[in-house]
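Hey, can you fold this one?
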Amino acid sequence: MLDQSKLRALRDRAQRDVDAGLQHGGVEGCSLAIGYQGEIVFAEAFGAAGVDTPFVIMSPTKTVMEAAMWVLYGGGKIAPGDRAAEFVPEFASNGKDAITLEMLQTHTAALASQQIGNPDHEDREKRLAAFARWKPDGEPGSFYEYNVGSGNWVLAEIIERISGTDYREFLKREVLEPLGLADIAMLSLGAPEEDQKRTLKPINCVHGWVPDPSKRPSAVLEYDTEHGLSVGVPGSGAVGTPSGLALLYQAYLHNPKGLWNEEVLEDARSNVRVRMSDPLGRPVTRTLSFHLAGEPDERYSERTFFGALTSPAAFGHQGQGGQIVWADPATGLSFSYLTNTVVFPPGGCFHPRARELSTIAAQALGS
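Sure. Predicted structure:
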């Protein structure tokens, strides 16, 4: 079933970054997994990682946490067009009263520069005070600008107010546990500090070529500490493995146990709600929770990580260091790659390893 030559190519491409060494823009550790028909059919790890070594899941965390939103959508508790301030009155100030849940999820709420960082983000009252202070950067709904975490903190608060349950516990109870994924070696959000000792901590080299470990900047939001990882930041702080992510995306394809209303799930996977350009003029195609691959000749900017050979219907998300996760309805494959190393050059979310690994993985079933 699997094309062994493509698997060898996938191994070789992942190993190449480990062999390069940190001083030449390589990575300390990484792992990857391919899912198919509800199972993991290939998983391998490289460098400092094992296949069950947890990593910090950066921006793809959004596509994990928002699965809890779909549960509430399917139950009729909330709808994407609802105004966030209906549920969180503290959020209504400074022209934010018209911002909808859809805007928060699709990065069109004009809040990209409105952030809350550690240690304040651990304190709910300080988060609510930050919500009240935030002021949109323009007219909400009129433009796309990716927000690192502001919108997801508001979504987390809405989950808590609607469900009466901590957002991390709600995700675990309603999504991860039913799927058998509620373990830090699969997927977790806000796992205890003791469990975080297993996590391969991030190395942040994003500010330049820094071979001297003592001179590297610390990881964002203290993600290089057990305490920082235990917070469970809803936009970028999940912890898990590529196997966990690839299995979750298999669930997004097949909806085992009927966790989500089928119409809600199909909407999240395929309904294009944003077709705009980002601040640099690059085209963006987003559903409620995902990037869509679109046609191959459109795959640059935030869609470069899909590679050349996934179908236009593939959906997923990228993350710092070249992290990737996607699923392709045309083939039934899901793929994830995680690393603990944010490197430069070229760094960020647009490292060529993302598209190169994805291009190979898309061929894993052979012809």
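The first helix runs from residue 4 to 20. Let me know if you want another pass with a different chain boundary.
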